[in-house]
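Researcher: Re-running this chain for the archive, since the previous output was lost when a drive failed. Same request as before.
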Amino acid sequence: MPGKASVDASTSATAIRQAIADHGPVTFAEFMRSALYGHGGYYSSGSPVSARGDYFTSPAAHPLFGALLAVQLREMWQRLDSPGHFTVAEQGAGNGGLAADIVEFAPRLDAAFGEALDYLAFDAAPPERQHYPVSPLSKLPRHITGCVLSNELLDAMPVHRFEIRDSIPLEIFVGTEDGELTELFLLPSTPLIERRLRPFLKELPDGYRGEVNAGLDEWAELQARTLERGWALTIDYGFDRATLYRPERKAGSLRCYYQHVLGQDPLRHAGSQDITAHVDFTAVDEAMLAAGFASAGSTTQAAFLTRLGLDAAVEQLHASRLPRPVLRANELGIGALADPEGMGRFVVAAHSRNAPETPLTGIATDMPAIITTLPAPPLLFPQRHINLAGQRQGSLGYFEVQSLDELFSDAP
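Model: Regenerated structure tokens:
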């Protein structure tokens, strides 16, 4: 039956099933939190961002992503009058790959900026194997001057799910039946679901499903406690609220990834597959403004990276006379970053706090590229990055996926 699946015999799946059997149904947000972050959960075991994992991110696609972020961070530092200490607090840092790329490139870009940069990486479940030191979120600093940064963090936050019936949103809970996980439809556990949907209820058809992230206010308050002066930079896939809750998006935006395969059944492979949902960037703005930030604009990842110098890096790469297999692997990695049908359409949102109002180059639509000559563009590192060429080339990593469009699909 739809919405019902046998639970894998993993530690996490067994624990989730037993807890629900013992204590009763839970919200999908509670289920998702356990499946991703609980003991034996998805993020606490293995290496999901890898050639053997279930997905890859922009930092894993190519080190140029981190290099161009360093260009933006340097501009922030300059806007703050080049303080002696410029702290970056990255949340959801995973294995520290992005941190390593930024920290390695910063002194090549500007020695003084490299000296001032204090890069701190944090994650809810720091993995054992790290490319850069990653600390638990409980160690986040307070009152920094600099930037709080996240890349594909909000899409992994637990969400409540709902289904429209007779123009009324019912919340989807997770229960058990005959030893299997199953869906239950109950009155919402939080009034936030109805408040978010109220403008759209008349347009949403029966059977329409979607998601509501109730944790954004708490997240924004954490950003405010961390950052005293500077910017918050949030990169993720999602939409404004009206686009997210389009009537045509009947199945919602929830996505599951298991061994590079896209699915929409979160009850399968509990604890062994990734579960994500597209971000409501209207809610992000609302939460950040309520926490004392000002909106500093948003753009697509493709436009953001282009304004920071992506084209100049590509030109230098083509002039480098690298062996063709190495050149091809790097071309594909860079291309994935700006692919308008893939990661290039991710949203880059900036918010400021006690910082100059001048638009950031990466975000502003009417500013020329900040830099036309980068230091030699970094190449793939086999320890940190994935070869998207789909062929083994020397010591480069290996990755194969049938369709980037499918992997990062936002189709209704």
